[in-house]
Amino acid sequence: SYELTQPPSVSVSPGQTASITCSGDKLGNKYACWYQQKPGQSPVLVIYQDTKRPSGIPERFSGSNSGNTATLTISGTQAMDEADYYCQAWDSSIVVFGGGTKLTVL
Amino acid sequence: EVQLVESGGGLVQPGRSLRLSCAASGFTFDDYAMHWVRQAPGKGLEWVSGISWNSGTIDYADSVKGRFTISRDSAQNSLYLQMNSLRAEDTALYYCAKGFGGELLSHCDYWGQGTLVSVSS
Question: Residues of A numbered 59-98 whose beta carbons fall under 8 angstroms of chain B's beta carbons: which are they?
Answer without folding.
Answer: 84, 86, 88, 90, 93-98
